[in-house]
Amino acid sequence: MSSQTLPDSTPTTLHANGGIWGRQLDRYPDGPRRILYLVIVVLATVVLYYEFYVQGSVATLISANLHMSLTYFIMVSVIGNALGALASVAAGLADRFGRANFVVYGLAITGALILFGLPNAHGKLTYLVLFGLVSLVEGMILVATPALIRDFSPQLGRASAMGFWTMGPVIGSLVVTEVSSHTLDSHPDWQFQFRVCGAVGLLVFLVAFIGLRELAPQLRDQLMISLRERTLVEARARGIDLVEASKSHWRQMLRRDIIVPALGISVFLLFYYTAVGLFVVFYATAFGYTEARANALANWYWVAQAVALIVGGALSDRLRVRKPFMVVGGVVSAIGVGLFAIATGDSSTSYSHFVWIILLISIGSAVAFATWMAAFTETVERHSPAGIATGLAVWGATLRSVVVVGLLGLIVAIPASGILVDKGAQVRAAAAGADHSLSAPQNATVKAVAADPSIVTKAQSLAGQYKSQLATAALLTPATTAALQSNPTDPTTQAQALAEISGTPVADVARTISLGTQYKDQLITAATLDTTTTTTLFLNPTDAAAQAKAVGEIAVGRKIDPAAAIAKLQALSQVPKADLLFLNSNAKPVQTAAAQLGALATVPVADLTFLSTYGPGLRDPKVVAQLTYLQSQGPLVQQAANDAPGQWQRWWWICFAGQLLFLPCIWLLKGRWSPAKARVDAQAHEEAVNRELLALADAEPRA
């Protein structure tokens, strides 16, 4: 390790811009203050990732509520990451204008957008625009935060510091899943998750506004190996030419050992970014998990990763090497992703089995990433300590560009999940009889037919078989139908039924029945008479010719002798004309109704019950529309449910390939493989520092 030399002639003071716009320190902070600044930066990073990832915990709810297809929802992330990539490039200006204000005021903007903007987005386009703004600000801040971590972290503690910084996305993701898994049941509206997140974001903004500071440019633009060099860094800072130090940063950073490792870690993180944004969608479409259950499973990923980041970073700093940790972590993570892909293809994979695989991926990727961040910043420092933010901007832009390409590829890779997200919920709700747009009876019919499609065929068959009887039944009120089923021989009920079928007032029906009973024999006699004979006798009862003709018709019709026929005619003549007129008007409709009611009574009760249960619903336009939708979309959803695991498995294998591509890129980064050689380098650097400190002490004026 090389050391920097002190200038021969340096000014005695170091200018630092103070106040809420400058926030610069003119001295390297002591232990407690340095830790405070690091904690604030990590806390800010946690909140920023919490804000960026919160939508993933309620992805299916947002899609349903704002009528987004899965493709549209993924495109929200695609556009967000594309804007973040552009913002990351712009964040390279943090080398020239500082880092702290990016973080402080960025927190204010994102907190306000999350708390007040996104929860009030009532359309998918508004949501897209607001999320794009959050992503734009986030892209700048998440270059500034690791730059601050580097500024306050000498190389010998860099992996631990970067491990803590990397806890930002990890704990941010953990907060997302913890809050959602414990509150979704009691607060099923997706807006609640955003409001909680936004409130936390604004609270952390206040903390950062009050407490966050950064090093003056002359201090941060130096290479610092250990905290023992603090005095040397401050002394060297007085001789740094800021104009010269700020030149050609992009030219210095666009190098193979910066660009290729940035690309390598980006493809390595494809699994991570998929998990962050679409774990809920994956488990909902491939394994039928609820949002709360999927988020609870993700908790294992984030908790294990948080622990592994700290342990891996500390061990790397203790042994003073990065590359062996990157290799081991990368291999372990790749094995886990491969096992995850295999498990996805098995529908019987249990929750607990996924937990163990996720722990493997989580621990491996945490160790690899924490040490990679340390090695990457050290590689950037090798080219220019003053260009840290620019180097991190290269990484940030590369990462988000890869995520954009990856998400676009994901849309192509998992079309079945798009169908399940877009149509699965509606199909499942309809099939379960839980569509909120339908009444309980309508839902019951849809649910029954969805479970047994033969109901429609049977209903159509019975409707054709009993067409006339059903027409009669349709004339009866539900109360009369129920009364007939309860007591079919009740005279009052029968009279009411005949009245409803014939359209005759129930009092007239009752009188018709009564007169029919009273004059039963006379009415039989009257039925044997010709219409002309009946009319003549009614108008002139004493007409001899009509009487003689009537006797003959009665004798023939009733098969009796003339004497008996005369007696029957005399009995008929005793019926009051008013009664005869009444019966002439009402008897036939009532008799027809009685015949229809009798035919209805011959239909089996089971068939009538079946038709009364399903018939009205199957004639309801809303029910028919829902069943038509189920008929057309149900098979598509079922096929998608069958295809989704295989398509997801294919995507996880792509992520596995990304993990493997990361490994060769490790060799391009700065750093030793051997802890022994690293210790020799550290000892040589320590001796050089001691010489510089002695030279500095000798140069100080003596009293």
Overall shape: rod-shaped
As a percent range, the share of helical residues equals over 70%
Structural category is: mainly alpha
Catalogue the unreliable spans: 1-12, 226-235, 239-245
Describe the structure.
The radius of gyration is 44 Å and the shape is rod-shaped. The chain is built from 34 helices and 2 strands. The longest helix is centred in the last third of the chain and has 45 residues, at 621-665. The chain folds into 2 domains: 20-431 and 633-697, Growth Hormone, Chain: A (Up-down Bundle), CATH 1.20.1250.20; 454-620, no CATH class. It has a two-stranded parallel sheet with strand order 1-2. The protein is mostly helical and 703 residues long. The protein is 79% helix and 1% strand. It has helices at residues 19-22, 31-57, 59-65, 70-90, 94-97, 100-117, 124-151, 158-183, 190-211, 217-220, 230-237, 242-245, 249-253, 256-268, 270-286, 291-319, 323-344, 351-383, 388-413, 415-431, 440-451, 454-465, 467-475, 478-486, 491-502, 506-518, 520-527, 531-539, 544-558, 562-573, 577-601, 605-618, 621-665, 675-699; strands at 24-25, 214-215.
